[in-house]
């Protein structure tokens, strides 16, 4: 019989929050400021290149991390986007730190987090993000439901590097057997946590096929999967 977890770890973007509609503070706008006419396809490539990056050398403080981000984008302006090699992996982290759009909560996010807190869970966020995730979550109205924030910017490692998941366990003082991870990326929110022994649930509202054994279409469904009859009744639109 599976032991019920005591720690629930969430991804942030496209799991609990998304960028505010019509925001002008976007990654593409940040590149455009530096003379780069990029596309969503370019950003997808750069996002994939950044996965698993070890930038712990620059994560000693917010100041050193922001300076690294600024120098990365200055290099983009000087040389353009180099799609091969180590440099490409630095671009998205720099954009996250300096060009993160304002965030809004996704439907059901507040109810989901509150349900876990009422059930006695510790709630953590583990996200590829800059140093300001706590402020961004507060701006989306969700901060009161979160106990611990762990970001790649602060931890020094990007998902799916094992160190960021281990850092989350260390911050919360739980073991891997006590935790469950919920997120929308198969690579970074399912396979990554599993490699360090954390149970994972894939949030895949639009998936046309089963990608993972524990896969759900909504945060409400994820809540019921973990909490069973302790989960809230569904609200319209959740």
Description:
- With 238 residues, this protein is α/β, with parallel strands linked by helices.
- It has helices at 27-32, 40-50, 62-79, 88-98, 109-118, 133-139, 152-155, 162-172, 186-195, 219-227; strands spanning 7-10, 17-19, 103-105, 122-127, 148-151, 179-183, 199-203, 215-216.
- Helix 2 (40-50) crosses helix 4.
- The model is unreliable at 233-238 (pLDDT under 50).
- Helix 9 (186-195) links the parallel strand 6 (179-183) and strand 7.
- It is built from ten helices and eight strands.
- 41% of the residues lie in helices and 13% in strands.
- The strands form two sheets. Strands 5-4-1-6-7-8 form a six-stranded parallel sheet. Strands 2-3 form a two-stranded antiparallel sheet.
- The protein is globular.
- The protein has two domains: 7-19 and 104-230, HAD superfamily/HAD-like (Rossmann fold), CATH 3.40.50.1000; 27-98, no CATH class.
The rounded distance between the terminal residues' Cα atoms is 30 Å
Strand order of the main beta sheet, please?
5-4-1-6-7-8
Class derived from helix and strand content: alpha/beta
CATH topology heading of the largest domain: Rossmann fold
- Superfamily at the CATH H level of the largest domain? HAD superfamily/HAD-like
Q: Enumerate the spans where pLDDT stays under 50 for 5 or more consecutive residues.
A: 233-238
Mean pLDDT across all residues, rounded?
92
